[in-house]
Amino acid sequence: MEEDWWGGDESQDPASNAPKEIVISGPGGSGNTLTGGINQISEDGQNGVWGQVDQKNSTRSRSVIWFLTGLIVVPVLLGGISTFLGSMTETGEYDEEYSSSPVVTGSVTIDDRTFETYRFGVSPDFHYDFDDPSFWSIGIDGWNWNSQIDSYEFGDPALQALDSQGSQWQSMWTYTWSSEFSNTPEIYIRVESNFVHVAFNLNECSECGQPEYFSYYSDDYPENQDVIAMVMCLLWPVAIIAGVVWGYATGRKPFAYGLMSFCALAAVGVMLLFGLLVMAFGW
After folding, report:
1. Which residues lie closer than 8 Å to 202 by C-beta, 6 or more apart?
2. Residues 140 and 114 both lie in one domain
3. How many other CB atoms sit within 10 Å of the CB of residue 252?
4. Which domain holds residue 242?
5. Apex CA 158: angle with CA 156 and CA 161, to 5°?
6. How many helices (H) and strands (E) does the chain have?
7. Long-range pairs for 170-175 at CB < 8 Å and ≥24 separation?
8. Does the predicted TM-score (pTM) go above 0.90?
9. Using CA atoms, how far apart are residues 96 and 100, in angstroms rounded to an integer?
10. Are 178 and 103 in a shared domain?
11. pLDDT tens-digit profile of 207-244?
């Protein structure tokens, strides 16, 4: 057999190449033995000390992130949604009309009673627009009294009457500024073109003056305003309760703890604010 070039002429004994055992002993005879063997390193990456530490740190970091998400991120998002919904309810149109120094136009008979008639000038398209908004209110003012009617009562047959010429009038609620007046003036109105007609009867109120001032106010809100308001009321409690339940159900308890911590902080803040108000104003 041809000899291997690295072995020379000597035959190599595999056993002779094995690592020798070395005994390291102290004065007392006790010691350790170095065998020269090779230990296999685990490849799963979870048996080492450093791997366990890294895993604990990663778990702790995730818990902190979930806690802060429930404590800060979710309330900020809910606040942004609430602000957006609130802005939607404030996008309605707002309108006002004012007029003073009415013109006396004559008199009419309503329910066998004589009323002086006055005319206030308003914008040209007022008679088209005044009854369209979601809510509106008309006021007639004079010395020591005020009359009001709004969109909820306008058109009520019980508050309507016809004059002797067949024109329809709408009665108004009238109030006086002093309790010593036993009677209040009787007021009817009628809208025609760009004029508001007022039928006025003193009704034995000797301290009351004639109509002097007309005012109109309207708010036109979106039709879904009530739905938006309900969503705003339910958004926070439903979202927080659902978040807490989801956190426990999915094993993300730090997220639930964050939401509950926010609720606790909010409650404490409200109580502190109330306490400050009590101390400031002595309630």
Report:
1. 185, 208
2. yes
3. 19
4. 50-90+224-283
5. 95
6. 5, 13
7. 172/138, 172/140, 172/147, 172/148, 173/147, 173/148, 173/149, 174/145, 174/146, 174/147, 175/145, 175/146, 175/147, 175/148
8. no
9. 14
10. yes
11. 788 899 999 988 776 667 778 888 888 999 999 999 99
